[in-house]
Amino acid sequence: MAEEAPVQPDFSNPELFTPSMRQFVEVKNRYPKTLVLFRMGDFYETFFDDAVRANRLIGITLTKRGKLTDGTPIPMAGIPFVSLDTYIAKLVKLGESVVIVEQMGTPGKGMIERKVSRIVTPGTLTETTLLPEKSDSTLLAIDWPRKKSAPYGFVWLTLSNGDFRAEEVSAEAFASVISRIHPSEVLVAESRRQALREAHPELVVSSLPNWHFDGRRGQEMLCSTFGLANLDAWGVSGKTTILAAANALLDYTAETQVDLMPFIEPLKLVKESEFVVLDPSTRRNLEIDQSLSPLGDGPTLFSVLDHCATAMGSRELRRWLNQPVRDRQTAQIRQEAIESILSTGSLLENLRTGLNTLPDVERISSRIALGTVRPRELASLRDALPRIQSLEKWLSAQPLRFFAALGESLRLPAMIEELLAKALLPEPAVLLRDGDVIASSYSPELAELRHFRDDTSRILLEMEERERAATKLQTLRVQYNKVSGFYIEVSKTAADRVPVRYQRKQTLKNSERFITPELKELEDRILSARERAQTLEKALYDELVAKLGERAAELLAAAKAIAELDAVTGLAEHAEAHRWVRPVLTDHPGIRIEKGRHPVVETTLENFVPNSCRLEDGRRMLIITGPNMGGKSTYMRSVALIVLLAWAGSFVPAETAEIGPVDRIHTRIGASDDLARGRSTFMVEMTEAAAILSQATDKSLVLMDEIGRGTSTFDGLSLAAAIAQELVQKTRSFTLFATHYFELTTLAQELREVANVHVSASQTRSGIVFMHEISEGAASKSYGIAVAQLAGIPAHVVRRAKSFLAKLEERANTVDSPLPNLFGESLLMPPEPEEEAGEQPSEAEADPAMLALIERIGSADIDSLTPRDALRLLYELQNEARAIEMPAAAPL
């Protein structure tokens, strides 16, 4: 149905609405900007503007339901009860928040009571079906400082594991920290909402009234929530912006979770100095976990390395890659674990087998803390506990401190397994409302109720046998039907012989029906057994979850240990399969990589050409020249990714690698407009360059690719030279500087810290062959025209370009000669006439180039060629063949 614009009624006028619609209006008045899903029978309905909005967002049918008291139709769109999670997932993915209103009463018994059960927002997801399996959903609150020089307050919470952190953030680091946290939803004061949305349109921003951002109240709330007298131990006392953001975040969490406050770990104060800083541009260019491909489906560093057996291991690995540490000990402990796994026989295979069968303990534990865990999730935890216990025994016996520490975290109280084994049925129902979750042996009362619920026929048969024996009436039957209920039936002829305790209930043509006090009591118990069993089972299940909730912190610690073990096991598996080595992390500044490879590209190529890199004092900048498509960008990215992997605690794709301290990785690669903010390609380029110059230090790794190409030649060359000089002389960063401005190669003669390297290429008679090798020294030429020829530029255009190039080079060699005017008559060549179809050379006309090609193929000694020589020969032959197919051209 086409979308229509309803007349939004006056929600302040209750006389317009029916009693049930007044319940909806009451909720809508509390949450005017949020979609309200209102439970009515088997559907969750939306009304008025919400219905139109839901129809537009997720395509549910827009219809009408009744009218207001003034006759206005009520627009409505509904979601089936069984499909709720599917549609909520779609809405949350679109950045929407949803209020869920549940029925609390039983239909048919007057007005049904309804209340808000939960509010689902992008940053407060806890349902397994709604959360991305391999990434976290994080809620971030930001408070602005009162003074420009003061830091922002960042506080964030991951509800699915209780991780609760805070950080003071400078204005310069604002974007970098946002990209590191990667929040699903950001909370700000109403007065800041518009400014943040304009600066970061990619964020899902929710606002709260300004009074929620109250530092004094935040301190009181943190103390009361965690039972503390003060916050000195956490290091946040007096940090006003952090306390204000914490107050807003806890208020929002309490409101959205209603009666289900999650488990939250003590607040941890984070400092930027703990991590290798990766700005948004760097994360994007290095494709850590998001591809640069237009569809976003290309391989990334995370997707290539993710061999984890569990989803929680994948999430831990993603965190390691996105937050490489600066602490050498932390990184080395992970690398020691990988080395130990690879050096111990079949350990890798055994660990993989043990981890493969484990469920997502982290999210099960968080849902236990919330009280929303489902029966099958508890059953999977119960079944996993013996395997976790086996892992704990093995890890605790290991000498390596990393494994021993994980073993301690896996040492769970025996009561957890005992309680789950005793309380749950072997195969519990999917949902509690379906019944048959708690084992009958767990509760004698539940066992008795199930007996009356499930064994009615046997109970009646046993009573019938007793009554026949007591009355000697062989025609007596104890039966039940929906009309008469339970009754004792005897024939007419035997009716006068029934005991006095039999009370006549119904007379039929050939029989009499009776009821006894015992049968009446049995009827009441049997008919109420199902409802009473469900009520009791729910109470027992809630009690079970509450007991387990007391152990939520220990369960989450165990989940964290499993995730870390899974992450290092996955990294070990990749390292073994791709011949990665353990890097040496040193305090000595510099980067020394022998035969390094790009960790992603090497998995897509059969023969990847490795390259080395040496950056150290006296050699802090490499000017990289060479042709496009030669591999300059791949080389620079491979160096950055090897550094990132080393400090994330992984092995690296190289023959050897020695990596010194790195505080930041900055990249200026690629060119694109930022239309959303009205910035040109060159403006984006200069903005990123400015950020690098202001933030990079002598411990930073900087990648600059083709800086200055977005403007005129002289402007671009001047800017590139000035930026390079600044990076060498003042910032003193370790820099890879790729450029097509050959004039910059002279910096190596003028600046002590600069060295030239180039991408090798071979120019043959028929075209260019890329060697993808990095060699010392500057490139001899650009090969731009050769690359254009490979790209399919018409032959006559290529020849004209070569002519222009020859004249430009001739003028450039003339002292004081101005640059030629390419569009003046003196340089322009007349257009070449088009060849007619019938003028192709005949086969009889022997082409010398063809003969040479045939002779070269025939004389090639294929068996003696190395793979690299074979690849070079193949390129040369291909280019010669292409040249032969082109029309013959006069020499330039």
TrEMBL record:
Domain DNA mismatch repair proteins mutS family, first and last residues per copy: 700-716
Q: Composition bias, kind Acidic residues: at what positions?
A: 832-844
Extract the SMART domains matched here.
MUTSac, MUTSd
Provide the transmembrane region boundaries: none
- Write out the residues that bind ATP: 626-633
Provide any one GO MF term from the record.
mismatched DNA binding
GO BP, one example?
A: mismatch repair
Q: Which CDD domains match?
A: ABC_MutS1
Q: Which family does it belong to?
A: Belongs to the DNA mismatch repair MutS family.
Please state what the protein is called.
DNA mismatch repair protein MutS
